[in-house]
Amino acid sequence: MIPITEQPSLYDQLENKSVEELTRYINQEDAKVAKTIEGVLPSVNNLITAIVDKLNAGGRLFYLGAGSGGRLSVLDVIELPTTYGLPKGIFNVVLAGGIDRLADALEEKEDDRSEGWNALMDAGITPADIVVGISASGTTPFVLEGLKKCKSLNITTGCIVSNPSTPIAAQSDYPVEVVTGPEFITGSTRMKCGTAQKMLFDMISTTVMIRIGRVEGNNMVNVKLINVKILDRGVRMLMKKAEIESYDEAKTILLTHGSVKAAMENMMKKHN
Predict the structure, then answer these.
(1) Please, which residues bridge with residue 131 across strands?
(2) Which pLDDT does position 106 carry in this prediction?
(3) Does any domain span residue 217?
(4) What was the pLDDT predicted at 7?
(5) Domain span at 245
(6) What are the mean pLDDT values of the chain's consecutive 10-residue runs (272 residues total)?
(7) Do 180 and 193 form a contact (C-beta atoms < 8 A)?
(8) What is the pTM of this model?
(9) What region, left, alpha or beta, does residue 98 occupy, with left being phi > 0 and alpha being psi -120 to 50 degrees?
């Protein structure tokens, strides 16, 4: 049986379609993604809870991926130290071909059966951590063999796949199967599968950051003050939270302590 991700597109003769038709059809397909994710939220919630539990106990998350999904996980993870002040090394990615070759799209590396596990070993993987495989097909050897090794050593596993009942899901304690159907271009899983993966990475990382205390109210109180825009946002955030009327005073306090959270904690200590 042909995997759903490889089944023929619902559309044909695309070269004969107008720009208006093509964009309308692509948008119709994209509209299916959020609804599909809604149907698997219980599985997503279980995976997020497992990640939070591991991180709260001092463990780490590793995304293990290849292709478009693996590259999208890199883009998500590199944002977290700046956006949430998360120490590097808590959220990690093991990418087929290596993160340093991200732009080279070394698709052939997804067939390597040992590189993923070797990279996890180099990172000192232990049962305190959790490894989440990323594979649209659910069969990628790089991901599958890495998860098999993890399972054999009682390392908690999860996955995000786009076909039902896959070998990778079978090796996962917390599988998330987001079956978005045939792609607009047959087999082009950078499209709906990639959109679903991006949405899930956003959902996972944001929810985890909130649950481990990197967000207060609806604010990024640990954001790194790396540019003028973020500094201004931080100053205004501190002015509101600490009821400081002077912009310059709030800016001085913020720059002294490096983050809104640290500034608030220091001010509370002085007040008490």
Answers:
(1) 62, 157
(2) 60
(3) no
(4) 95
(5) 228-271
(6) 91 97 98 97 98 98 94 95 94 88 66 86 97 96 96 97 96 97 95 97 98 94 93 94 93 93 86 68
(7) yes
(8) 0.93
(9) left
pLDDT reported for residue 266: 87
Question: What is the DSSP track for 47-59?
Answer: HHHHHHHHHHTT-
The 3-state DSSP class for residue 125 equals coil
Based on the domain organization, do 125 and 56 belong to the same domain? yes
23 and 119 share one domain = yes
Whether 14 and 97 share a structural domain:
yes
In the structure encoding, which two tokens stand for residue 235, read together?
A: 């100053």
Radius of gyration (C-alpha) of the chain in whole angstroms: 21
Domain end, chosen from 161, 180, 211, is at 211
On whether both 46 and 82 belong to a single domain, the answer is yes
Would residue 50 count as lying in a domain?
yes
Which residue type is seen at 131? V
What distance in Å separates the CA atoms of residue 49 and residue 71, rounded to the nearest whole number? 24
Position 220 in a domain: no
Single-letter residue type at 181: G
Are residues 117 and 172 located together in one domain of the fold?
A: yes
| Residues tagged active-site | 79, 110
Taking the CA atoms of 197, 28, 39 and 45 in sequence, report the sign of the dihedral they define: positive
**Max CA separation in the chain (angstroms):** 72
The pLDDT of residue 107: 65
Other CB atoms within 10 A of residue 142 CB = 27
Q: 232 and 204 in one domain?
A: no
**Which residues contact residue 129 at a Cβ distance below 8 angstroms, ignoring those fewer than 6 apart?**
54, 59, 60, 61, 62, 155, 156
Instruction: Check which CATH number belongs to the domain holding 181 and give it.
Output: 3.40.50.10490
Q: How many domains does the chain have?
A: 2
Residue 272 is predicted with a pLDDT of 65
187 and 131 within one domain: yes
Name the phi and psi angles at 135, rounded to 5: -160, 115
Which residue's structure tokens are 């070797």?
118
